[in-house]
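Structure tokens please, single chain.
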Amino acid sequence: MAGIGFELKKLFHRKGLVAMVRAYGYAGVICTGPMLLGILLQFGVLAVSGWWHVPRADQNLLVCMITYTLLASLVLTSFLSMPVTRFLADMLFEHHEETILPSFWGSTTLMLAVGAVLYAVFLLFSGATLMQGLLCLWLFLEMIVNWNAMSYLTAIKDYQGIMWSFVAAVVVAFLSACAMMALGLPQVESLLAAVAFGYGVMMVWDVVLLHRYFPQSSESPWTFLAWLDRFLPLALTGLLNRNAFDDDVEFIQATHDKPLTVMYMDLIGLHEINNHLGHARGDVVLCELADAARAYFGDDNIYRIGGDEFVIISFAHSMAQSARQMGYMRQELLDHGCELSVGMAESDDGEDIPDLVNQAENEMRKDKKRYYASGSGKRQLRTLNKQLEDILVRNKDMESLLQHLNTRYSIAYVVNLRADTQRPVVVPGYVQKMLDKHGGSFHEMLLDYCDKLVAPAYRDGFRMLFDYDYVRDRICREGAIRYAYVRNDGERFLITIFPDTHSVDEVMWVFAKEDTSSEE
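Here you go.
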């Protein structure tokens, strides 16, 4: 949601009541548009029903059909919403916008196929008439497209366009309901069809917005499925989320009057782990932390409230006991290469829980500051760089290597030295433009890259890599080639070249940012 999030942030910075209402209105429609529309349309349906004296039993039936259809579509799409959102964020960060629209149609097609079968079976046993069942199925399929489109629309900045789709849907639903009721058509079916018309307008409008902002391409519509594997470990952490945390804090505040301890934890270096060793390794670290927290604080409430932030609310341990348990837990995680910054606070009577959480968070930030002041952060980065370097040399099998590549800061190609052809693995947009400029020749791209981006003092050494015979000979003798250089912008990079065990002519070229920290 980063793209539209920055735009909304600008609105929230504006002063005045009107600006605040406008900002919250946009945020509400963008984040919960289909659900908000469903609630509003149900109020409208009841209002129109009252005007035309629709029997109460028919009104209740109509509300039930709309509610079941709305919730069923939400439940179905929720299974793919997280991997789709993560895929979308990664593609936007890497400037691979050409993959977005195909993935929308791929994910939508998958959900429509599965949803149509499941909801049709439900409707067969629901007691609805044939016409009512067809209208509910039509509305259900529209809702699937709308829910999925909303995940993609958060990436664009046209919040006004999204808002207008919402307004148009309400107007069309209201006018069509009045028109059909005035014509004397069957009441329940007319009102249900009007709701479907409204959602249909929203669906078409949102799809048009997606086509306006994202390019058509021939990319595979199923690429996003690889992100299911990345999401699954996070789903299995078993920790309570931010919504549960907010609800529990409110409940504890209102009902609890006994001592409790709050622990606020930050998983240090998760961002760097993701960048150096890949999201798969980052997900493993999160699961290890979750397992350790359950092992040492299994009787307490454990929450993951942010990407790398966790909170434990303990009713069973005093602050001294919690500190002792936390010490054991931190040591266990340290043995696995994970480090935490921790803050604690306690209350004798459970009063003012939000303030207690803030105290613990402030203590955590002090602990984190001490960690980086001691130079531990630099040491962690050097360790991660060494792990990445070892992986690059050890894993000559390409499929195994792809799980560990730094997908945010590296360039990676599989290059055929005999044919001067390449297969991209991790390609920033600026490198792809150079490659396109030279008709796909990796050799010519390297020349262009060297002349434009490599600092003059490092160009002679870099140019030695243009000689494919030299590269092949060194790999045969040494197993891998490494060359460190500095770009014109001051960034230090390390090129690692090593062979593919499946082909004598193909080698992997990986350009990775190099850690420049001095030894502590």
